[in-house]
Amino acid sequence: MSNADVTMPRLLKNPLLHVVFALLTGCVYLPNTTTTYDETCQSHKRHMRLEVQQVGTLMGCQGDACVAALVAFGAVTAATAIVSGSIAMVGNVVYWLEEQGQCPGASNRVTPKATSR
Known about the structure:
Elements: H1 3-7, H2 15-24, E1 27-38, E2 43-54, H3 63-102
Antiparallel strand pairs: 1-2
Helix pairs in contact: 2-3
């Protein structure tokens, strides 16, 4: 049994896990707000969505240091997805409530593309 077998947990030896972490390397999720004008209500509508931004890459690492870096990058990516996803979800609820106050019939409106005659 080598020293690497003792220090590296068995899960981290899985090559598929390395591929997943490599795909996530240096990515963060950020909420982005878009604004459109609704002519029917004569108001601006806002909507939040998540965007993926790559902030770094991992090149030329080997061994335990590489595994640790991949785990850290994966944890950062997951954490930003959870936090930013929560922000986007709450933001969209607030924007929807705001729309209901500005244009009471907003949830009952049918867009011209959805009508059938």
